[in-house]
Amino acid sequence: MKNFYLPLVLVIGGNLVYHLSQKSLPKEANPLYTMIIVYGIAIIACAACALAYPSEKTFLQSAKETNLTVFLLGISVAMIEVGFLFVYRVGWNVSTASITTSVTVTLMLIPIGVLAFKEHLTVRNVVGLLFCLLGLVLVAKK
Question: Percentage of residues in the chain with pLDDT exceeding 90?
Answer without folding.
Answer: 71
